[in-house]
Amino acid sequence: MVCIGLDVGREKHDYVVMSEGRERFLDGTFPNESWAFKAWCEHVEGVCGTTKIRLAYETANGLATPLDQFLVDRGWELVTIQPCAVKSYRQNVLRQHDKTDRSDAWTLAHLGLQWNAPNSPREQPRRALRTLTRWRESLVRSQTRTVNRLRQTTAAYWPELTRSTLITNYSALYIMALFEHFPDPKILSEIPPTEVMERFRQSGSRIPAKRLLLLQRLARQNSVYPKEKEQLVMTAQLLARRLKSLIQDIAEVDKLLEDLGRDDAIVRLLLSWSGVGIVTAATYASEIQSIDNFESESSLASYCGLALRRVQTGKSKNYNSPQRAANRRLKRCLAQMANGRRLYDTESATYYERKRAEGKTHLQANRCLARHITRRIFKSLKSRQA
């Protein structure tokens, strides 16, 4: 068997081919082009003959999925190495402190020779889940911005409503139903209450009778002159239509996530737990991609931003601070998961209360619960592969 260490770059790739006796007999560079990659594969296979080929590359860079699958179809064995492991091995074992692309490729070849193949087949990347979850995140961000702009526009021509609690504490669906049909307070004050309630119901947001009476009372108190608010009313109506479109898009993405989640092992595992929804489960699965990328539970926790680091500077005392360099989407996802499990799962609630009794703050106890959930997920997924 031969092992190839491949350092992936944006413009070029450096490689080192090493035998089982750790002898380097081939190295070089080729451009980051599809034709060059195919020619390089044929050249390596011609040099190695019938010998088994193993390719080691860093997880952070990674090959594109078509190239990854292309190598698997050619019979190559693929190994992903954590970047922190490459740096540590190069400095502490190989004693090379000068970082170059070629030295990284040499280090990857050494680590690839030490890698023991798992019994389970390689798990495919979750590219569709990642695309959908990140698209949903951008839609929710746009929805929040639209709601804020709608409230700012309303404050210019209907300040009585903005100062009340009838708009600040309610959902985007309720705000959309209000300004899509009744952006002008004068029109709202003249329409019978039964007709207003029916239009709200058709928009998917029911409005109680007491809240409707308060709205119409605020509409009658409006003191802004009609000439000043005509364009603002039209702006509010356009923003309401934009908000309606965003709400519909988010609902469609949620349906697509549910369809994809039925066939995903990680999503099914997380949905079997109380307090975890489809969006949280799909986000977690799409961000970690494959549990094979992590050698231990501590490496997974470090990637999620749950590993603690010792902080000491000047005269300040030592304290443990959460790691800052992490996947922030995973960090938010685990915080939501911990909150849901704390509210709907007895075991998680008991764990949280025990940490609070030890003197930890709410955030610290919630972080401990998220680390506990990470351990359970890692053990469950690894046991299923065994």
Write the layout of secondary structure elements.
Elements: E1 2-7, E2 12-19, E3 24-31, H1 34-48, E4 53-58, H2 65-73, E5 77-81, H3 83-92, H4 101-114, H5 127-157, H6 159-163, H7 165-168, H8 172-181, H9 185-190, H10 193-202, H11 209-220, H12 226-261, H13 265-271, H14 278-288, H15 297-303, E6 308-311, E7 319-322, H16 328-344, H17 346-357, H18 362-385
Parallel strand pairs: 1-4, 4-5
Antiparallel strand pairs: 1-2, 2-3, 6-7
Question: What does it look like?
Answer:
It is a single chain. The chain is α/β, with parallel strands linked by helices. It is built from 18 helices and seven strands. It folds into three domains: 2-114, Nucleotidyltransferase, domain 5; 129-258, Helix Hairpins; 265-385, no CATH class. Helix content is 62%, strand content 11%. The strands form two sheets. Strands 3-2-1-4-5 form a five-stranded mixed sheet. A two-stranded antiparallel ribbon has the order 6-7. The radius of gyration is 28 Å and the shape is elongated. The mean pLDDT is 83.
Main sheet attributes: strand count, strand direction, barrel closure: 5 strands, mixed
The CATH architecture designation of the largest domain is Orthogonal Bundle
CATH level 3 topology of the largest domain: Helix Hairpins
Q: Tell me, what's the shape?
A: elongated
Let me know the number of strands.
Answer: 7
Q: What percent of residues adopt helix (DSSP H or I)?
A: 55-70%
Portion in beta strands: 5-15%
- Terminal residue distance: 25 Å
Task: Going across the biggest sheet, name each strand in turn.
Answer: 3-2-1-4-5
What's the helix-strand series?
EEEHEHEHHHHHHHHHHHHHEEHHH
